[in-house]
Amino acid sequence: MPPRCVRTRAGSDRPQRGRHPPPLRSGRPDVLGDRSVTLVTGATGFLGSALVVSLVEQGEAVRCVVRGATAASRAAKLRTALDGRVAAKDQHRIEVVPGDLAEERLGLSAAGFAALGRDVSRVVHCGARVNMTLPYGPLYGTNVRATEELIELAEACSASFGYVSSLAAVGRSVTGEPFELHDSVSGGYGQTKWSADRLVSVAHQEGRVRAVILRPGRITAHSRTARSNPDDLLERVIRVSAWLGVVPVLDTRVRLSPVDWVSRLVVALFGTERAHGQAYHLIAAQSLLWADVPAALRAAGYEPVELPYQRWRSAVLAAGRDDPAVARLCHALPADRLSFDDRIGCEPRNAARTLAGEYPDLPPAAGLLGGTIAAWQRTGELPSVP
């Protein structure tokens, strides 16, 4: 157990052309005057950019902390992440300010860091360094220290604090959705998220901030557009299997938690007063057998050959020597076993209870999978069927 401490444009494995909306504003973190502002970290990430879109659609003014050497590069990075999802008439609601979670005080002066909180009523901390191979130390600054600093910022400006944690912080023996975690976890990334999760829960219990803890699991493609995270292992395996015509035989289940559903839950829960002081596991209740994946590919017109995992992996490694898109997947494939969902009993009970009639329902998992494959065919992320 670690001591208690008191990423990319979403798209496909294939190149795509992005849309280019009008430029976003950048400048000092006080330009919104007396309007209430939501400060968002991780705004250029897969979930973070979806949160910005959801907040803006609700009429919120959003201040996005973005890493980059110049105002132009920061604005361009966020514009790429948003990918035309914010209407031109709403661009003025988005402000881009500098900040690097890996640096002390986000790389800002004391005055500059304090100014981030000007007019801020809510902080949504979604930024993190996600790396499942690094130990605790290299991830500490970005994932733990930055969380502690942002808690202090929220406390100083009397803002509520929404922390996007992770199910990686939750021990396998944990049942329910406890606000404060005690069971230890393994792996550097999980340990840093556990430590940060603890910082938030303790700060709330001490009365320093009003906090909500949100713990997503695997976040999958948008339920309507199928806009996906290019770094998600599950979806990369499905796409590469379709391109190569071979699919692995796996003993696992899969769970589809679309990014638009997760972002709606985050925004809805954070905007609900009774949610403060609670934690929410944001993961779809329904899962599928892995066998449903090759079945869905066949239903879409493909004829993949099923291979034992090791033989399928060898085929992918061979293809990766000539195809850079496939090579990106090769580095993420374990040698012996591939699993996508080992939290069979995990369900979003707290969210359904808190939101009641406002809880956003999900389509059946099989329909989501089939719809995503069909959308990938339309966008060219999957090969056309003769």
Features:
single chain; 386 residues; alpha/beta; Rossmann fold; disordered N terminus; phosphoprotein; phosphopantetheine; NAD-dependent epimerase/dehydratase family protein; FAR_NAD-bd; NAD(P)-bd_dom_sf
Description of the structure:
Keywords: Phosphopantetheine, Phosphoprotein. This is NAD-dependent epimerase/dehydratase family protein. Pfam families: NAD_binding_4. By secondary structure, the chain is of the alpha/beta class. The chain has two domains: 192 residues, NAD(P)-binding Rossmann-like Domain (Rossmann fold), CATH 3.40.50.720; 96 residues, no CATH class. It is 37% helix and 13% strand. The chain has an eight-stranded parallel sheet with strand order 1-4-3-2-5-6-7-10, sandwiched between helices. Helix 1 crosses helix 7 and helix 8 crosses helix 12. The longest helix has 21 residues. The protein is globular. The N and C termini lie far apart (54 Å). The N terminus is likely disordered.
**Domain module count:** 2
**Which of globular, elongated, flat, extended, rod-shaped describes the shape?**
globular
Number of helices: 12
CATH class of the largest domain: Alpha Beta
User: Roughly how many Å apart are the termini?
Assistant: 54 Å
Could you report the average pLDDT, rounded to the nearest whole number?
89
Q: Largest sheet, if any?
A: 8 strands, parallel
Strand order of the largest sheet: 1-4-3-2-5-6-7-10
Question: Structural class, judged by helices and strands?
Answer: alpha/beta
Protein name: NAD-dependent epimerase/dehydratase family protein
Region (Disordered): 1-32
Keywords: Phosphopantetheine, Phosphoprotein
Domain Thioester reductase (TE): 40-265
